[in-house]
Write a structure and sequence with these properties.
The structure is a single chain. This protein is of the alpha/beta class. It has a single domain, classed as Aldolase class I (TIM Barrel, Alpha-Beta Barrel), CATH 3.20.20.70. Helix content is about 30%, strand content about 20%. It is built from eight helices and eleven strands. The chain has a nine-stranded mixed beta sheet with strand order 7-6-5-4-3-2-8-9-10. Strands 1-11 form a two-stranded antiparallel ribbon. It is globular and about 55 Å long. The chain starts with 9 loop residues before the first strand and ends in a 13-residue tail after the last helix. The protein binds iron/sulfur cluster (SF4). Iron/sulfur cluster binds next to helix 7 and helix 8.
Length: about 280
């Protein structure tokens, strides 16, 4: 007789290539409709990670083959010591900044170029934009956010950066058309973007969570190649940061290299086929 008990799939960390660092859990100047973070009503929350915690994590992972450190949040650029943490991380590897782009103007882009030039590594930007149509984008991200992202793109390109635009496919539209239309928008503002400048991810709808099906196979998951550090410890991925279901330990001296895929977030990851957070280097080959 077949065993009818559904066993939760287990995922093994293959290599710690991607080190995510959550600079703040709750601070963001935008409140997008599709965000997976539950924001507090009180805005005055001081939950920033300390530069010393970041330094210790870098030291504890010195024998790991980290290819990129990702600064995440809520909005990482709200951190009062953002520049210090960025410089510290750039001593170790390339750094990718996940941002809603509102803190980037020409002055900031010029400054960040100088910071990059001081290092032998690269700064990569993942900027949020959710639609090529301004009204549809601002309906999700808030009024004015489309123009802010476009301004950030223009500023970064002016100083020689090659930003990646991250689209959460909230309206469930055809990926090819989204890329095609966004390329036209970028070109209009002087940025000749290629396919590798876009990542389009499924929207994880908190209100209609999908189940993991028995025998569901996956192709590439963030938890196979990365871990996230927060003020509360180490977790399997940004989706499960500070969630007990993703807990891997209190620091990188001793952390779990396997995790169970038991949440509806995991289902979104599996269905997305590509990593949602880590850079897909295949596209750059
Ligand atoms: S949410 Fe995604 S990346 Fe995180 S543990 Fe589940 S499958 Fe892995």
């Amino acid at each position: 007789m077949k065993n009818a008990i559904f066993q939760t799939p287990v995922c093994q960390l293959k290599e710690l290539n991607n080190l995510f660092i959550e600079l703040t859990e709750k601070n963001c100047n935008q409140h997008c409709k599709h965000c997976y973070i539950n924001f507090p009503l009180n805005k005055n929350i001081k939950d920033f990670i300390s530069p010393d915690t970041v330094k210790s994590a870098l030291n504890d992972t010195k024998n790991e083959s980290i290819e990129c450190i990702y600064l995440t949040g809520a909005e990482p650029m709200t951190h009062p010591d953002f520049n210090l943490i960025l410089r510290t991380c750039l001593k170790r590897s390339n750094v990718c900044i996940f941002t809603n782009a509102t803190f980037i103007n020409e002055k900031k882009a010029r400054f960040l170029k100088r910071v990059e030039d001081e290092s032998s590594y690269e700064i990569i930007f993942k900027l949020s934009i959710d639609h090529y149509d301004e009204v549809k984008n601002d309906n999700i991200r808030g009024r004015g956010s489309y123009r802010q992202t476009i301004h950030a793109v223009k500023s970064l390109v002016k100083y020689g950066f090659n930003p990646i635009l991250c689209i959460t496919n909230y309206y469930k539209e055809d990926k090819k058309i989204l890329i095609q239309e966004l390329k036209k928008v970028c070109l209009k503002y002087g940025f000749n973007a290629s396919d590798s400048n876009f990542t389009i991810n499924l929207w994880h709808d908190k209100n209609s969570p999908e189940e993991i099906l028995p025998d569901q196979k996956w192709e590439s998951l963030d938890c196979e190649y990365g871990r996230i550090l927060t003020t509360k410890g180490v977790y399997s991925c940004p989706f499960l940061a500070n969630d007990h279901r993703g807990r891997c330990g209190s620091d990188f001296r001793d952390f779990a290299r396997h995790n169970t895929l038991e949440t509806s977030y995991c289902s979104t990851c599996i269905n997305n086929k590509e990593k949602l957070f880590g850079i897909n280097y295949k596209l750059f080959e």
